[in-house]
Amino acid sequence: MKVAEKTARTLEEAIEACLNELGVKRDQVSIEVLDEPGKKGLFGLFGSRLAKVKVSYQDDPGSLACEFLTNLTRAMSVTADFEVFRRAEHVTINITGTDLGILIGRRGDTLESIQFLTNLAVSKMISDKTRIIIDVEGYRKRREETLVKLAKRLADKVKKTGNRIILEPMSPQERRIIHTALQNEWRISTFSEGEEPHRRVVISLKRHNKDVS
Prior knowledge:
The protein has 3 domains: 2-57, no CATH class; 61-137, GMP Synthetase, Chain A, domain 3 (2-Layer Sandwich); 141-205, Ribosomal Protein S8, Chain: A, domain 1 (2-Layer Sandwich). The longest helix is centred in the last third of the chain and has 23 residues, at 139-161. The chain has helices spanning 11-22, 61-75, 101-104, 109-125, 139-161, 172-181; strands spanning 2-8, 29-35, 51-57, 80-86, 90-97, 131-136, 165-166, 188-193, 200-205. Strands 1-3-2 form a 3-stranded antiparallel β-sheet, covered by helices on one side. A 3-stranded mixed β-sheet has the order 4-5-6. A 3-stranded antiparallel β-sheet has the order 7-9-8. It is α+β, with helices and mostly antiparallel strands. The mean pLDDT is 89. A hairpin with a 3-residue loop joins strand 4 (80-86) and strand 5.
C-alpha cells in the first residue's frame, strides 16, 4: 500500500497534492481527513489550521502487471496497449497493438515466458496471489480452437488405425486443452509423458488409466 499525507489551505488542494505524488486517480484511493481547514490552533493562539489529509492507494495485481508489461514492451521496442479483465479467481490482460508477433513467439512460447515473468514480478510486490493470464489480441482463444480441432482430428485417426499418436511438446495449459477436448470420447484415452519442458500428450485407444497432467 502507498500512502501520502499533505497539508494545504483546502481539503481539495491537499487531496490533489497527494494524488499527484502517488500518480493515481481519485476513484482509486481512500481518503482520510486528519485536520479540517479553518479550525483554531492550540488554545486558539496560533491562528487557523490548514487542511491535512492522508490518501492511501492499494496496488492491485492488474495495475502492477500493466506497469511491468509497459516497461517490458518498451524495452522490446513494441508499442502496446493493455486491456484488463478482473475476475474473482484471476486477472486477464489482453495486449493490443500492431506487429505483436514478437510477443507471441513460436506456438506461444514467448507469451508463456512473458506470463511467467509477469506473475513472478507481481508476486514479489504484493502478497495477493491472484493468477495473471497474459494474452495478445485474443491469441489464446484462437490457439485453443486450433488445438480442439487438432485433438478431434487425431482422435478420429487413432480410432481408425488403432495406433497411438504422440503430439509435440506443449505447455501444461495447452495439454489440458487436449485432455478436456477428448475427455468424453469413450474409446479414446489421453495421458502425458516425458519431463518439462518436453512433456507431450499421447492419444491412444482406451486400455488403462494414465497420468493426464
